[in-house]
């Protein structure tokens, strides 16, 4: 199925780096971005299969970042993460085109399952173009 390239977008540096290390150990190709702006710059430089996107970030929040990603880079599947159980932002994110919505602290196995499902969806989408 190929190795998924994953962009982890979260302003909490320790959390971001922990997720990146754990994903790398599982054979993924993860990269960090610490803001919505950094995420857009990274997507402009490199192709990613899946974006893990925190909703609550200073400056450009996850929903705004998701809108820009979908407008400029329709390729990657986006999984929203939030530490605050906001059903409205999850529903809003899904309506904009997010693949899934997970609450932090996320169970790592649940996260891996969501990444696999998103990556599979991306590959299937790429095959039908």
From TrEMBL:
Residues 5-119 form the Response regulatory domain. GO terms for cellular component: cytosol; protein-DNA complex. Signal peptide: none annotated. Gene3D superfamilies: 3.40.50.2300. GO terms for biological process: regulation of DNA-templated transcription. GO terms for molecular function: phosphorelay response regulator activity; transcription cis-regulatory region binding. Transmembrane segments: none annotated. This is Transcriptional regulatory protein ZraR. The gene is zraR_14.
């Amino acid at each position: 199925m190929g190795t998924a390239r994953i962009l982890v977008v979260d302003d909490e540096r320790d959390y971001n780096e922990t997720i990146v290390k754990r994903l790398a150990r599982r054979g993924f190709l993860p990269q960090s971005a610490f803001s919505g702006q950094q995420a857009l710059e990274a997507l402009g430089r490199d192709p990613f299969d899946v974006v893990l996107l925190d909703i609550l970030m200073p400056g450009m929040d996850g929903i705004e970042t998701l809108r820009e990603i979908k407008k400029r880079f329709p390729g990657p599947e986006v999984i929203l993460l939030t530490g605050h159980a906001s059903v409205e932002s999850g529903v809003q994110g899904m309506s904009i085109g997010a693949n899934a919505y997970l609450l932090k602290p996320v169970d790592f196995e649940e996260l891996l399952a969501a990444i696999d499902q998103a990556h599979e969806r991306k590959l299937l989408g790429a095959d039908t173009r």
